[in-house]
Amino acid sequence: MDIKGKVAIVTGAGSGIGRASAIRLAKEGARVVVADVNDAGGAETVAAIAAAGGAAAAVHCDVTKSADIEGMFAFAGRTYGGFDILYNNAGITTGQPRWPDCPEERWLKTIQIDLIAVIESTRKAIPLLKQRGGGVIISTASLAGLFGFAADPVYSAAKHGVVGLTRALAGLKDEANIRVNCVCPGVVNTPLVTSSLQNLNGLALEEARRAFAAMPMIPPEDIAQAVVELIEDEDAAGYAMGITLDQPHRIVPAPINLPISSGDASALRSR
């Protein structure tokens, strides 16, 4: 897809990966809907895009609320006549103390934001993109969605879910000209990561430092570049793109691929 002239929605665009991606998409010629629960952060992103000569508008969106997701899409319709690209980026970590010692409401919130909101936004976006003749949906997963991440098992589980959803929707490319993909970065230099370090101490802090030494932090602009690559690649569908510092972006294949057609899958569901 040629990004120039398209409309892109980016959730969690008030900082970090979302901000870098919104700025990059605007630089590529897209009009950008900056969606975030942090209104001040969203306004800063819009201002940065405007200062560079791009077009953007901010909308308040708590991705845990279905009404806010609907409002985000309605805002894109009122402001730019619809959208062509959805980037499900908003996310959190579970934090300390680790699961299973953390309060139930906190690990449930991780699942709600990192997985359920991605499912819900994607579900609501598909019919709207069908009306436009197709589009692209990108989600932020993680390398923690490709292997067991003991430091935050719930976050890892949620990101595995995002990868699984992405791969399961590969068929939308042929069915409706909608390409669904995800980016799987390692540790990214964002406020989410740096603030989480401030809450660590003792053994947890030592483990985090060792992890960052083994996997240096990636600039958020690298993730924005990967997002652009997946949008522009017309063959990309159901891809999970692994991203590490100073290494070429790579598509990580599923560990197993069963030769099941959509008709076979329907038959299996009916049993």
What can you tell me about this protein's structure?
With 271 residues, the chain is of the alpha/beta class. The chain has one domain (7-254): 3-Layer(aba) Sandwich (Rossmann fold), CATH 3.40.50. 49% of the residues lie in helices and 15% in strands. The chain has helices at residues 16-27, 39-51, 66-80, 104-131, 153-168, 172-176, 191-198, 202-214, 220-232, 262-270; strands spanning 7-11, 31-36, 55-60, 85-88, 135-140, 178-185, 240-243, 250-251. It has an eight-stranded mixed β-sheet with strand order 3-2-1-4-5-6-7-8, sandwiched between helices. Strand 7 and strand 8 (250-251) form a beta hairpin.
State the helical fraction. Answer: 40-55%
CATH superfamily: NAD(P)-binding Rossmann-like Domain
Low-confidence residue ranges: 262-271
Q: What is the radius of gyration?
A: 18 Å
Count helical runs. Answer: 10
The average pLDDT is 89
Number of domains: 1
SSE-based structural type: alpha/beta
Q: Could you say what the CATH architecture is?
A: 3-Layer(aba) Sandwich
Order of helices and strands: EHEHEHEHEHHEHHHEEH
User: How many beta strands in the DSSP annotation?
Assistant: 8
**Distance between the ends:** 39 Å
Under CATH, the topology can be stated as Rossmann fold
Provide the descriptors you would attach to this structure in a database record:
Rossmann fold, disordered C terminus, 49% helix, 271 residues, alpha/beta
Q: What is the secondary structure topology, with strand pairs?
A:
Layout: E1 7-11, H1 16-27, E2 31-36, H2 39-51, E3 55-60, H3 66-80, E4 85-88, H4 104-131, E5 135-140, H5 153-168, H6 172-176, E6 178-185, H7 191-198, H8 202-214, H9 220-232, E7 240-243, E8 250-251, H10 262-270
Parallel strand pairs: 1-2, 1-4, 2-3, 4-5, 5-6, 6-7
Antiparallel strand pairs: 7-8
